[in-house]
Amino acid sequence: MQLTFFDWVVFFGYFAVLALLGWWVNRRKAGSSNDYFLAANSMPVWVVAVSVLATSQSAATFLGGPDMGFRGNLSYIATNIGALIATFIVIRFLLPRYYQLKVTTVYELLEQRFGASAKDHAGKMYLFGRIFASGARLYMAAIAVAMLLFNNIEASSVLVAVVLLALIGLACTVAGGIRSVIYTDALQCGVYVLAALLVLVYLYQSLGLDVATLTQALQQPIEGGPSKLLLFDWRFDVSSAGVFNMWSALSGFILLNIAAFGLDQDMTQRVLTCKDSKAGARALLSSALMVIPTMLVFILIGFLLYIFYQRPDLYQPAQGFADSFGGEKVTVFMYYVLNEMPSGLRGLVVVGVIAAALSTITSGLNSMSSVLIADMYKPWKLKQQPNTGERHFVRAGQLGMIVTAATLSAMAILCFYWQQYSNMPLLAFALSVMVFSYSGLLGVFFTALFSHRGNRYSVTAALLTGFGITLLLQPYILQQISPSLAAFNLGFTWQLCIGTVVATLVCLSGNATAPQHAIKEQ
């Protein structure tokens, strides 16, 4: 597959719009660290909502969502029940505290409760997980971009794609800070949702089947199992295969989304750019609701690809589906793009993949930089030089984004070589790796919010315990302990439940010591 003239027109047109938006947003320079990292609490609710939506998704969603529909059913959509419950919990218990304390990062709440070391250790735990998660997502996006732009996945092509994505992400956001990130995210979200909608329409028209025929085909049980239209899966299964059932949605997915929306600086930082907690609550709730139709579009693409490739009685494609390209496993959506997509629309899909990737990269750059500078560097610098001006910390934030971009690029390149010697699915790794950090963070924040116990020592112990418990529950670790345990493949949502419970008990085991800023319910 080679991109045509029309594909390149779409490709460069997108970058022209992106450059124009970057110039418009960056006309106003950030005057303080609060302005650089929180946009001086001046962002419109609707833009923040779209930015949170873009941040919660990635190239993994753009490429993996259709694959989920192709191989599974609608049960993933039902897990958003857990996300909505989590959203209300974050709105009720966390957002008002953050705005009350006027925090730059969410981990400053722990400083008020347990002391500076708690904030420092929680920030490091977040950075550890985010480097792995965002680095893996950058790698997956680079693989897709290399396939689409260079028609191969050689090391040099992937390296160029990684550097290209990182440089574009930096160019769009390093000058204007979080304000640039949020407006850029809104554009990226619009681009990749538009691309997905056009693919859905083209695929539907190419099948030439009416809605009634498609619905009847999707309602049929598959190999003795449920139909593809199953929404609420009440089968009790704690393995990785059953991670999207309702029991998981009402337990692990609630915890996962509390952590993502309320404890992960990557997403929470956007909500904190609103005027006040009520505006932030509206943005967060709007985003959680917008996820449902957005994911439905990607899953419907997967359903139609199932008809296209797996139902020859209804449609006979020109060629069958092979889930590899140049020796690299690809999703069914990527295979379809490489082999079936027409000129022009194919270029838009390339742009959609890049847009989805950039929405992940730009959000990670600024949020990781905010933790590095606001939580770690700024307190140290003010102790050394109390009169240090705000412009210094703005420049430090920009340097922090450059360092972060280099780190994520290095992680993405490491993933490329790691994938050559590992059988572990990188997509599963990218989606579940934050559980390692979330388990301990949830335990610490639950202790801070709902008790008067805990201290800086039990906080550190809880963060390490949450990480350790999650690590011990991984199949590759269990296999090293005993070959008989290798079949114990616990789903990542259940790993999160166990890790959070243990981490909470560990954090509660510490007696309260100064500083004791107990967080009381308003």
Structure characterization notes:
With 522 residues, the protein is mainly alpha-helical. Helices cover 73% and strands 1% of the residues. It is built from 23 helices and two strands. β1 and β2 form a beta hairpin. α4 packs across α17 and α8 packs parallel to α21. The protein is globular. It starts with a helix and ends in a 14-residue tail after the last helix. The C terminus is likely disordered.
Rg result: 23 Å
Judged by helices, strands and strand pairing, the structural class is: mainly alpha
- Could you report the average pLDDT, rounded to the nearest whole number? 85
In spatial order, strands of the major sheet run 1-2
The residue fraction in helices comes out at over 70%
Number of H- or I-type helical stretches: 23
Q: What spatial form do the alpha-carbon principal axes imply?
A: globular
Total number of beta strands: 2
Biggest β-sheet description: 2 strands, antiparallel
Strand content: under 5%
What is the H-and-E element order?
HHHHHHHHHHHHHHHEEHHHHHHHH
Unreliable parts: 516-522
How would you briefly describe this protein structure?
The protein is mostly helical. The protein contains 23 helices and 2 strands.
Q: Which structural traits does this protein have?
A:
522 residues; mainly alpha; two-stranded antiparallel sheet; 73% helix; disordered C terminus
Any chance you could write out the topology, listing elements then pairs?
Blueprint lengths: L4 H21 L7 H6 L6 H12 L2 H13 L3 H4 L1 H22 L6 H7 L1 H35 L4 H19 L4 H30 L3 H9 L26 H4 L2 H12 L1 H7 L5 H34 L13 E2 L2 E2 L2 H9 L4 H40 L5 H31 L5 H7 L2 H16 L5 H17 L2 H7 L10 H17 L14
Antiparallel strand pairs: 1-2
Helix pairs in contact: 1-10, 1-17, 3-10, 3-14, 3-15, 3-17, 4-15, 4-17, 6-13, 6-15, 7-8, 8-9, 8-17, 8-18, 8-19, 8-20, 8-21, 9-17, 9-18, 10-15, 10-17, 13-14, 13-20, 13-23, 14-17, 17-18, 20-21, 20-23, 21-23
